[in-house]
Amino acid sequence: MIARASFLERYYLSRTGVVGLIILMLVIVMAVFGPILYPVDPWEMVARPLQWPSLGSENPLGSDVLGRDVLSGLVNGARVSLIIGISATAAAVTIGVTIGALAGYFRGFIDDVLMRITEVFQTIPNFLFVIVLVAVFRPSVFTISTAIAVVSWPAVARLVRGQFLTLRQRAFVESCVVIGMSTPRIIFTQILPNCMAPVIVTSSIMIATAILIEAGLSFLGLGDPNVMSWGAMIGFGRQSLRTAWYLTLIPGVAIQLTVLSISFVGEALNDALNPRL
Amino acid sequence: MTKRYLVRRAGQAIVVLVLIACINFLVLNLAPGDLVDVLAGESGVGDLAYLQALREQYGLDQPLYVQLVKYLLNLVQLNLGYSFRFNLPVRDLILMRLPATLLLMFTSLGIAFLGGVAFGVAAARAPRSIRDSVISTLAMLAYSTPLFWAGLMLIILFSVKIELLPSGGMQTINGPNDPYSVVVDIARHLVLPSLTLALFYMATYTRLMRASMLDTYSMDFVRTAKAKGLTPLGIAYRHVVPNSILPLISLFGVQLGSVLGGAVVVEVVFGWPGLGTLAFDALFQRDINLLMGILFLSSVLVIVVNFAIDLLYGWLDPRIEVEA
Amino acid sequence: MRPILEVRGLSIEAGSESRPIPIVQEVSFSVTAGSTLAIVGESGCGKSMTALSLMRILPEPGVRISAGEIRFDDEDLVTASEQRMQELRGNIISIIFQDPIASLNPIQTIGDQIIEVIRTHRSVSKREARSRAIELLRSVRLPDAERRINYYAHRLSGGMCQRVMIAMAMAGAPRVLIADEPTTALDTTVQAQVMALLRKAQTETGTAIILITHNLAAAAEAAENVAVMYAGRIIEHGPVRDIFLAPAHPYTKGLLGAIPDDADRDGDVAKLTEIPGNVPRPGTLPEGCAFEPRCKNSQARCRQERPDLFREGNRLVACFYPDSGTIAQ
C-alpha cells in the first residue's frame, strides 16, 4: 500500500502530467460517450456546406464541403484514434516483449537471428512501410493497426532484450536457475515484472506515435473508408484551405491536444516510475 | 577503422538488405492477385501475350523459391522493374525524383539539428527556469503536431494570410532561367516544406540535447573545468556541449527512416516533386512495384547513412577504438 | 606566521531555504604558507563539502554557504564576486579530486586541458603554453611527456591522470592547493608516489596544502596540523603528532584504534576497536553532542548540551569528558 501511494504522489508532482491526464480523460470520455450524447452521423449531409463554426447554431463547429457536421466528425474521430492507437500498441508490445525476452534470455544464436530480424524491421522506413502494407492489404482499422504494430515492435524488443540481458545475470535469477525453476516461470515471474516500468513508458509514447501515423494515413486517403477520422477530415478540408481553414484547424488541434496529453502522461509516468534521488 | 570492421559491417548490411528484399517479395506475393497482376499494376493492360511473357520473365510458372532467386538477382542488377503507369523503368523514375527529396530532407535535418542544439543548450544552461519551461513545453507541442497539419497551417499563415512564400511546388513555372534566379526560386519554395519537416525533429533534438547536457553537467570533469577558473560560457561551450552532442549524432542515423516517412507527407502537402509525391501517385495508381522499389531504395539509403554516421561517430569520439 | 587562508565559523547547508539541512557547522581553521593541514573524518562528515566551499564550487543548486568567512589575504571569499573567484580558481587556489580519470574531459587531450588553464589566466601564445605544459608534466614525473601530452585521459592509468591533475593545479603556482581524497581511488604503491609529488610541489613553490582524507596514516605523514570532523563539525584540532599519539576526543581515539597496529596488542591478540552505531545523517542530529549515542564516556550533560571546542593543552577538543582526564567546565 505504501509503495502504491508514493507512486501516485510522485505522479502528481508533475504538473504537466496532471494536466495531460485530465485532457486525456476528457478525450476518452468524448470517445466513449460522445457519439451517444451527440448522435449525429458524421457522414451524413446535415447542413449547408462550408458553414463557419458558430457556437449557438445546429452545427456548433460548422460544416465541411459536403455539408457534414464537424463536431460529429470530431467526436467520432476520437474513437478511431484511440482504438487504433491502443490496439496497435498492444500488439506491438506483445510481439516486442516476446521477441526481446527470448533474445535476451537465451542469447547466443537465437539472439543473433532475432536481432537481425529486428534490425530489418528497424531499417525499413516506418511510415513508407505502413503505407505500402495498408495499400496492399486494403485500408481498414484492422490492417492499419496491424501495419503500425509491424513497424513499432522493434523498439520494444530492443528495450526488453537489453533489460533481460542485464537481469539474466543478476544473482536473484541465477539462484532461481540453480533451484531448478522452470524457464517460463523464471521469465514470467522473475524477470518480466522488473522490465515493466520502461515498457509502460515506451507504450505511452507508442500510442501517441500510432495516433500520428494513423492521422497521416487518413490524410493521404489511406484511412478506413468506413470511419471518419481526424486525419481524413483534414484531408477533406484541404481543397477549401483558403476560405474554410477552420476545417483544417479544428481536427488538427484535436490531434495535437490528444498526442500532447499522452506525451505528458508518458513523461510523468517515467518520472514516477524511475525516481531520481 | 580497420578493413576487417568495414568488411564485417558490409556483410551485415548485405544480410539485412537481402532480408528486406525477401520481405518485399513476400508482400508482393501476399497482395491480392498474382504477381504479374500486381506488377502490371492492375491496369488491365490487356495484352495477354505480354502478360504471359512477363509471367515467364518472373518465373511465375515455377516454384516460389525460384521466383525469389530471380527477384533477388534482378534487384542486384538494380532492375527494379517497370512502371506501366509512368511508362518508365522504376529505377529511372526514382533517380529522377531522388535529388528533390534529398534536398528537402537534408535541409530539414540541418535546420532541426542546429535549432535543436541551440534550444537544448539554452534550456540546459538555465534548468528549471522560465526559459527552460517555455522551450521544453514548445518542444513537446511541436513533437505532438502532425507534420501534414503543421504544413497546412504554415501555408495558411505564410501563403494565404501573409503572401510571403509560395504555397507549393519546387519552382515557379515560367520563371527566369538564369542560375541565380533558379537557386533563389527553389530556396523560396524550400522554406516552408523544410521548416515543416524540421519541426518534429527539432523538438526531438532539443529534448535530447537538453537531457544530454544536464547529464554532462553532473560529471566530474565539468567540476574540474569550473575549478580551473573558466567562465560559465567557457564551461558550456568548451566542455559540456562537445560531450553532449555525441548522442545526437547517433540519433541522426536512427531517425533517417522516420524522416523519409515524414518527407512523404510533407511533399504531398506542398506538392514538392520528390520521392514522396511519387509514392503517393504510385499508391493511388496501385503501382505496387513502384512502391516496393521506393521502399527498397529508401532502405538502402538508411543503411548507407547509418554506416557513415557510425564512422563519423567513431572518428569524433576518441574513446571508441573500433576493434582491430 | 600569518596564515594565508583563514576560515571562521563556516557553515554549509543543503535543501530548501525554508527547510535547510545543515551539512557543515561553524568550522574554523587556517593554513600558513608551506604547511599542510589535514582534515580527516569518515564519509559523510562534511569534509569534502568544506573543501569545495573554499573555492565556491559547491554543487548547485541546492548546497550553499550559509554563514562564516573565508579570509584570503584581505578578502572574504564568501562575499567575493563570481568574477573574482574565477580569477582565483586554478590560479591562486587550486584543487585536485578523488577520481582523476573522471575529472578529465574525455574528448580533449590532456595537453589541451593544461593549456586551457594556462591560457585562462595568462595571455600567452599557444606554443608557449604548450611548452609550459610539457614542463609541468615533466615536473610531475610523467614519463615521455612530449608524446603523452597528446593522449586522452582514458589511455592513462589512474596514477598518471592524478599527476596530470597535479600539473594542471600547479600551473599557476597557487598559494593554496586543496587535495580532496587524492589517493583514495589509486593503488597503494601509486598513493605514495602521489603524496611525494604533493610534497615536492609544496617545497618548490611554498604552496599551502589542505589535505582531505580518511586515511589517517597519510594525514600523519603529510600534515603538521589536523582537524578531525564528525557530523559536520570539527571535534578535535591541533598538531598532528600530539593528536595522533594522544587523542583526546573519544571519536578520534576510536578512529585511531580502528587502524590495525601492533602497538595495540593486548596480550597476544591485536584488537581493533570498533565504534558502535552509525554516523548520523545530516538533518538527523540529536540535541547535545552528536557523538554521544556512540560514546563510552557519555554522561547526562552530553545529551543536553553540545560541547564547543575547548582549548586543552596545545589543541582544541569539543568534548566535556575528553580522554586526557580533565573535565571541561
Summarize the structure.
By secondary structure, chain A is mainly alpha-helical. Chain A is 75% helix and 0% strand. Chain A is elongated and about 75 Å long.
Walk me through the structure.
The complex is a heterotrimer of chains A (277), B (324) and C (329). Chain A is mainly α and 277 residues long. Helix content of chain A is 75%, strand content 0%. Chain A has helices at residues 2-12, 15-37, 70-106, 108-123, 126-136, 141-168, 171-178, 183-219, 230-237, 246-273. The model of chain A has no long low-confidence stretch (mean pLDDT 86). With 324 residues, chain B is mainly alpha-helical. Chain B contains 13 helices and 2 strands, in the order ααααββααααααααα. A two-stranded antiparallel sheet of chain B has the order 1-2. The model of chain B has no long low-confidence stretch (mean pLDDT 83). Chain C is of the alpha/beta class and 329 residues long. In chain C, 31% of the residues lie in helices and 24% in strands. Chain C has helices at residues 47-54, 82-88, 110-121, 126-139, 145-148, 158-170, 188-205, 216-222, 240-245, 250-257, 300-304, and strands at residues 3-15, 20-32, 36-40, 64-72, 75-76, 93-96, 176-180, 208-213, 225-230, 233-239, 265-266, 269-270, 310-312, 315-317. An 8-stranded mixed sheet of chain C has the order 6-7-8-3-9-10-14-13, sandwiched between helices. A 4-stranded antiparallel sheet of chain C has the order 2-1-4-5, with helices on one face. The longest helix of chain C has 18 residues, at 188-205. Chain C starts with a strand and ends in a 12-residue tail after the last strand. The mean pLDDT of chain C is 87. Chains in contact: A-B, B-C. Chain B binds chain C through residues 219-221, 223-231, 234, 238-239, 242-243, 316-319, and chain C through 55, 57, 59, 85-91, 94-95, 97, 99, 102-108, 116-117, 120-121, 152, 154, 165, 168.
Q: How big a fraction of the residues of chain B is strand? A: under 5%
Structural class label of chain A: mainly alpha
Strand order of the largest sheet of chain B: 1-2
What's the overall geometry of chain B? Answer: globular
Number of strands of chain A: 0
Helix fraction bin of chain A: over 70%
Rg estimate of chain B, integer Å: 24 Å
Mean pLDDT of chain A comes to 86
Describe the global form of chain A.
Answer: elongated
Question: SSE order of chain B in H/E notation?
Answer: HHHHEEHHHHHHHHH
Number of strands of chain B: 2
The ordered string of helix (H) and strand (E) elements of chain A is: HHHHHHHHHH
Instruction: Give the termini distance of chain A in whole angstroms.
Output: 21 Å
N→C terminal distance of chain B: 7 Å
Poorly predicted parts of chain B: none
